[in-house]
C-alpha cells in the first residue's frame, strides 16, 4: 500500500458514475479494498446530500462522508449533525434569481434535502427517478412555487446552492455567469459542472475548501489526499490534493492542472487511479 494517501475524494457525475449513472462493480470493489486498508473515502459532488448519500450507499462502505452542493454541506448520515453548512442569505439568493430571470433562464435552489423551483419537476429528472428507489423519509423533497421570491424568503438560511441548466440558449447562460461574477465578485463562487449549467454558492464554498475542512477533521495533510474529478467545479479540490486526478473524459482545463489523467468514467477510471496510487 502507498502509505501516502489517507483520504480519497471522488466526484460523482462524469467520474464515479458511468454514462448510465451507475457505479461499476470494479469501482465499488476497488474502493472497498482501499477502505479495508484504512483509507477514508468521501463522495464530493454538486448534487444535494440526499442524492449523493443514495449513491454513496451503493458503494457498500458504511459511514462515508458526503461533501454535497459543491462543498457547501458535509454530513455522513441522514440523522447526523452537519460537519459543515454554508448557506446563501435570502437577500443574495433573491438578487441571483433576478439576474437569472433577466437572461430568460430558470434556477433551482436546494437545501441538503430539498429542491426548490418555479415549475414541476419533470419525470426524467435525476431526483425524480432516484426517489422511486428510496424510502419515504429519504426521498428528495420538492417545493414548487411560481412566487419564487416568496419561496426564497421562507427558505432563508437553508439554501446551499443554485443551479441553472440550459441546453439551448447557451449564450444567455454564459452571459448570466459572467454577470454574476462581475456583480458579486468573491461574494459568490460560480462554476460549471458540465457544458450546459452554472452552479452558484456563497463565496467561501468550493469543493477544495470542503475537502480541506474534512481533511483537517480527519487529521490528514493535503499531501495525503487524492481527489478525482472531471469538470470545472472539481478544479479547486484537485489543486488542493497531493494527487489530483483528472478523468479521461474530463475537460481540458481539468487535465491541465491534474497530476495524473486516468481512464474515462465508462472504463473504470476511478478504479484504475485507486489501483495505481493505493493498491499497487
TrEMBL record:
Q: Any idea which UniProt keywords this protein has?
A: Hydrolase
Pull one GO CC term from this UniProt entry.
Answer: cytosol
- Please list the coiled coil stretches: none
Xref: InterPro entries: Cof, HAD-like_sf, HAD-SF_hydro_IIB, HAD_sf
Q: Which CDD domains match?
A: HAD_Pase
Specify the superkingdom.
Bacteria
Q: Which GO terms describe its molecular function?
A: magnesium ion binding; phosphatase activity
- Asked whether the keyword Zinc-finger is assigned, the reply is no
Q: What is this protein called?
A: HAD family hydrolase
Amino acid at each position: 500500500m502507498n502509505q501516502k494517501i489517507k483520504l480519497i475524494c471522488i466526484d460523482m457525475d462524469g467520474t464515479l458514475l458511468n454514462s448510465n449513472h451507475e457505479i461499476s462493480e470494479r469501482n465499488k470493489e476497488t474502493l472497498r479494498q482501499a477502505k479495508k486498508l484504512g483509507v477514508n473515502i468521501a463522495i464530493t459532488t454538486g448534487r444535494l446530500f440526499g442524492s449523493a448519500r443514495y449513491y454513496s450507499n451503493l458503494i457498500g462502505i458504511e459511514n462515508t462522508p458526503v461533501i454535497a452542493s459543491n462543498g457547501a454541506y458535509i454530513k455522513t448520515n441522514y440523522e447526523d449533525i452537519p460537519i459543515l453548512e454554508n448557506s446563501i442569505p435570502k437577500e443574495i439568493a433573491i438578487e441571483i434569481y433576478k439576474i437569472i430571470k433577466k437572461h430568460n433562464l430558470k434556477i433551482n435552489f436546494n437545501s441538503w434535502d430539498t429542491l426548490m423551483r418555479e415549475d414541476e419537476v419533470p419525470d426524467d429528472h435525476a431526483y425524480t427517478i432516484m426517489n422511486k428507489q428510496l424510502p419515504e423519509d429519504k426521498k428528495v423533497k420538492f417545493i414548487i412555487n411560481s412566487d419564487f421570491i416568496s419561496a426564497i424568503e421562507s427558505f432563508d438560511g437553508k439554501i446551499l446552492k443554485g443551479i441553472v441548466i440550459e441546453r439551448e440558449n447557451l449564450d444567455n447562460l454564459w452571459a448570466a455567469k459572467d454577470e454574476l461574477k462581475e456583480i458579486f465578485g468573491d461574494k459568490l463562487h460560480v462554476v460549471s459542472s458540465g457544458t450546459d449549467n452554472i452552479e452558484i454558492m456563497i463565496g467561501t464554498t468550493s469543493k477544495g475548501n470542503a475537502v480541506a475542512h474534512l481533511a483537517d477533521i480527519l487529521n490528514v495533510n493535503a499531501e495525503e489526499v487524492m481527489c478525482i474529478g472531471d469538470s470545472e467545479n472539481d478544479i479547486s479540490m484537485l489543486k488542493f490534493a497531493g494527487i489530483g486526478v483528472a478523468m479521461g473524459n474530463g475537460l481540458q482545463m481539468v487535465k491541465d492542472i491534474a497530476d495524473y489523467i486516468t481512464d474515462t468514467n465508462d472504463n473504470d477510471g476511478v478504479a484504475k487511479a485507486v489501483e495505481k496510487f493505493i493498491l499497487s
